[in-house]
Amino acid sequence: MNKKIIICILVIISILFISGCNKKIEKDKTNTKNNEVKTNNNSVVLYFSATGTTKTVAQKIAKYSDSDIIEIIPKVKYTDKDLDYNSDCRANKEQNDSKSRPEIKNKIDISNYDTIYLGYPIWWGTNPKIILTLLDTYDFTGKTIIPFCTSGSTDITNSVTELRKYNSKLKILDGERFTSSTNSEYSIEKFVEKSELNKEEAVKEMKVIINNKEYIINLEDNATARKLVKMAPLELNMKDLNDNEKYYYLSEGLPVDPYKPGHIEKGDVMLFDTSCIVIFYKSFDTTFDYTKIGHIDNLPDLGSNDIKVKFEQ
Fold first, then answer.
1. 162 and 118 both lie in a single domain
2. How far is Cα 5 from Cα 7, in angstroms, rounded to an integer?
């Protein structure tokens, strides 16, 4: 057979083989990624704005925090006359009445969010009464509220104190005040960065569901644990190894600070290498390096079968 024909045939076979391998690799990657279930956004900017000033800041915060955004719309819109503070206006009457709760027009769903950026203008040194209507109407339990306000001179401190007193069960961070001269892109970005750090420092535990039973991971105070919390919710099919651990390789690496524990305790949650998350369900000695994520108290023997595990904030 002609040598040129043989070479051509070999080249064609090689191309087909490489193409097939590439398709398998891409398919395997797709299967790995599909094994993790994550929402795009677990934070929302929730704001009330009577004149549009707070709305402008809210839109910038949503941009830099990669959050959804929802406006708190009053059932009766505030007119310029309603906001004429030098008269006996509607806003003055509401702020002077401790029982005033202006109605909210739109339905607001916060069930899918863990972090709420809550924005409002400062009225009479504190938050408008419609913010109390919001807290009365919707359940903010277990969510982190990060307040921000717009004001020409009054600080946010008093309004945050009032909100904490109004519902002491809520987790409300200190927040930030913005003025016309401090609502720049740079200021907003720094506020979001600081808020994210404060929120991460406040997280001490994480929920994990194993075989439909709920447990709590007591988290380490490190970057690895904080990154895992930010990635949640995660639903993983974890494989068994050595009849003492369940493991899963994440598609995204986590920060590491490896050490040799020497001994693994039942319930330890560790990171092996940069992306292998491990739940140990038996105690034993080890020579391997791990980064500790946390510990699950009262974890039972999980058996040798593969299991579905869901990590939630």
1. yes
2. 5
In the predicted model, is pLDDT for residue 45 greater than 80?
A: yes
- Count structural domains, the chain: 2
Closest to 119 in 3D by CA, of 184, 165, 168, 188: 188
Entry pTM:
0.55
Residue 177, pLDDT above cutoff 50: yes
- In 29-127, which ranges are E strands? 43-47, 68-71, 115-121
d(CA 185, CA 178): 12
Residue 215 is inside which H or E element, if any? strand 213-219
Q: Note whether 140 and 191 are same-domain residues.
A: yes
Q: Answer yes or no: do 64 and 177 share one domain.
A: yes
Amino acid identity, residue 168? S
- Do 218 and 289 have their domain in common? yes
Q: Domain of 67?
A: 43-202
Decide: 205 and 217 in contact? Cβ < 8 Å. Answer: yes
DSSP state at residue 107 = -
DSSP state of 111: T
